[in-house]
Amino acid sequence: MTTTLLNADLHCHSVVSDGTLTPEQLAARAHANGVQLWALTDHDEIGGQQRAAAAARALGLPYLTGVEISVTFIGTTVHIVGLGFDASDTALAQGLAATRGGRGARAQEMAAQLAAAGIAGAYEGALRYVGNPELISRTHFARYLVEIGACQDTNEVFRRFLTEGKPGFVPHRWAALGDAVRWIRNAGGLAVIAHPARYRFSPNEEYALFSEFQQHGGQGVEVVTGSHSVAEYATYAAMAQEFGLAASRGSDFHSPQESHTDLGRLPPLPTGLTPVWQLLADRIQ
Fold first, then answer.
1. Residue 70 is inside which H or E element, if any?
2. Beta bridge partners of 12
3. Nearest to 254 by CA among 17, 9, 39, 88
4. Which residues contact 14 (CB under 8 A, 6 or more apart)?
5. How far apart are CA 147 and CA 125, in angstroms?
6. 167: burial class by Cβ within 10 Å (0-12, 13-18, 19+)?
7. Across-strand partners of 225?
8. Residue 280's pLDDT is what?
């Protein structure tokens, strides 16, 4: 699996974190959409990996284990995707459990802020959308605000609530970058910077992220992803080459109703890059 033309989708979410489909439904959707290599990358959680791998195997769909780890870097939440690791690794599981641990108290504080803004019952409402209460997140609150008619869609929610300076925003201190990369590497996996254009770093801050990530042993960057523009594909293809990183590709699919990009519907990686799946060939299930 060396070609950049491979229809790999190595970034998506199930009900185990903040998606709306089960691992089995995602596997079926990926297969139906022509995905040739798939990974489920739930936030800070690997509880869906066995189900995803089994569903993929039943469909004859090549599979890589995956996770998306929340990291705090210079005061900003950054996501690091891990691919091709041993899902039974104890240190990785313990690190992810510690990262998830702060979400409950944070969610209660978010609900208190929303109540002060006139939206009652947000914690209980958000819980209805949560497959795993340990992973309650802004997305679950956003779905509740749409349900009660406070906003028309989740895009409006994030314009009016739950973002910095708006009601319901509570920052959370996640894992350190080095810890996340180390957990992935020590479990035999490969670490990837997820959707780098989303962080809105200055050029110096972005350079610092890539440099430190590489120093910790990170090996990949998402070049083609659902939130990147065509111009950003080229920008991060160049960054991959500058830092000697392999290139990844993933839709970041969460839900048929909410996601702009469906599983398997991204353009190919730009030419001249090393695809992450080339480095992970021996870990594909």
1. strand 66-73
2. 253
3. 17
4. 21, 22, 23, 25, 26, 40, 42, 48, 52, 131
5. 9
6. middle
7. 250
8. 97
Q: What is the per-residue pLDDT for 2?
A: 58
What DSSP assignment string belongs to 15-43? Answer: TTTT-SS-HHHHHHHHHHTT-SEE----B
Question: Where do runs of H (alpha helix) occur along the chain?
Answer: 23-32, 49-59, 90-100, 103-116, 122-127, 138-147, 154-160, 177-186, 203-215, 230-243, 276-279
pLDDT at site 41: 98
Give CA separation, 142 vs 82, 98, 205, 208, in Å: 26, 24, 29, 32
**Are the beta carbons of 156 and 148 closer than 8 angstroms?**
no
Mean pLDDT split into 10-residue runs, the chain, 285 residues: 84 96 98 98 97 98 98 95 98 93 88 97 95 88 97 95 95 90 98 97 97 98 97 98 98 93 96 96 97
pLDDT score for 1 = 55
Produce one character per residue of 236-260: b if its CB has 16 or more CB atoms within 10 Å, e if not: bbebbeebebbbbbbbbbbeeebbe
> How would DSSP label each residue in 230-279?
HHHHHHHHHHHHHHT-EEEEE--B--TTT-SS-TT-SPPPPTT--BHHHH
- Residue 224's nearest CA partner among 254, 182, 167, 266 is 266
Closest to 135 (Cα-Cα) out of 68, 199, 77:
68
Max Cα-Cα span within the chain: 54
Q: Please give the helix or strand (H or E) that residue 80 lies within, else none.
A: strand 76-83
* Residue showing tokens 């799946």: 277
